[in-house]
Amino acid sequence: MMKYGHKAGWVERALIVLAILWGMATICKVAGQEHTHRTYTPTREHKVVAITILAEARGEGNKGMYAVAAVIAQRAFERKRTPEQVCLKAYQFSCWNGKKLKDLEHLLTLPQGKYAMLLAKTVKRLSRDYVGYANHYHATWMKKKPYWAKGKRPVKIIGQHAFYKL
After folding, report:
1. Hey, where are the domains in the chain?
2. In angstroms, rounded to a whole number, what is the distance separating the alpha carbons of residues 50 and 106?
3. For residue 136, what are the β-bridge partners?
4. Contact 161/139 with Cβ under 8 angstroms?
5. Phi, psi of 91 (to 5 degrees)
6. CB of 51 within 8 A of CB of 90?
7. pTM for the full predicted model
8. Tell me: the pLDDT tens digits for 125-135?
């Protein structure tokens, strides 16, 4: 007579023990490994959008940077363009006038760079309502308003930027 009863019962118990040992070995292996993160390499579009946000509003805090990103999102939506195309269109964002990506890439190393990159990665999903669906803005400290703002009333003022829906 076998110690554990019939032969089939012994096989079942052996399989259970093997499964437990295999599970424990797997847990030990995973626990012993260092947690590794995949390195994120920003796309050109993300860099362009993040740099635009930083160049235009890095001194305005998170609310101001979000507002500029929302304008980029609104323009991309209205014009059926990519956020990168919106940012690089001639004379739309003064930071790009006569500049190339390599000239402004250093802005990404600023403390605000991580937040700007987060906004850039999610720009198409931002709340455009945050700025009243504005597609234009200017600094409130400008002595002379841009021609397109004359006679217009801003839909929002956030920090030192006035936002317009034209």
Report:
1. 44-130
2. 11
3. 164
4. yes
5. 65, 20
6. no
7. 0.76
8. 999 999 999 99
